[in-house]
Design a protein that fits this description.
Blueprint lengths: L2 H7 L7 E5 L2 E6 L2 E7 L2 E5 L5 H6 L4 E5 L5 E8 L8 H18 L2
Antiparallel strand pairs: 1-2, 2-3, 3-4, 4-6, 5-6
Protein name: TfoX/Sxy family protein
InterPro entries: TfoX-like, TfoX_N
Length: about 110
């Protein structure tokens, strides 16, 4: 995704900062990371409070293969498909990601 598409995706939060990281991009709002782009897929931050909502909506949790072939689950989830066609639905998901980022600081 180019930076303009990412900014549009996160417009409900207000201004975002996009930084290159580990072959992808990190998306920050108010200094907190809310999403990562990995392999051309945007993944939103979630935590124990919001992960169940992502899972119920059919999102997938990002995991990579760690040492000895064991999967390492990361706190990022795919964006539910219906959000890409509806800015109001996307706004809900990106706000959940920001709320998870705020909780992560505590």
């Amino acid at each position: 995704m180019d930076n303009i598409e990412i900014e549009e995706m996160f417009q409900a939060l207000g201004p975002v900062t996009i930084k290159r990281m580990f072959g992808g991009k990190g998306v920050y709002h108010m200094g907190r990371i809310v999403a990562v782009e990995v392999s051309d897929e945007m993944l939103l931050k979630a935590d124990e409070v919001s992960a169940a909502e992502f899972e119920a909506a059919g999102a997938r949790r990002w995991a990579y293969e760690g040492r000895k072939g064991k999967p390492v689950n990361m706190p990022y989830w795919s964006i539910p498909d219906d959000a890409f066609d509806d800015p109001d639905i996307m706004a809900r998901w990106v706000r959940l990601a920001y709320e998870a980022a705020v909780r992560a600081e505590k």
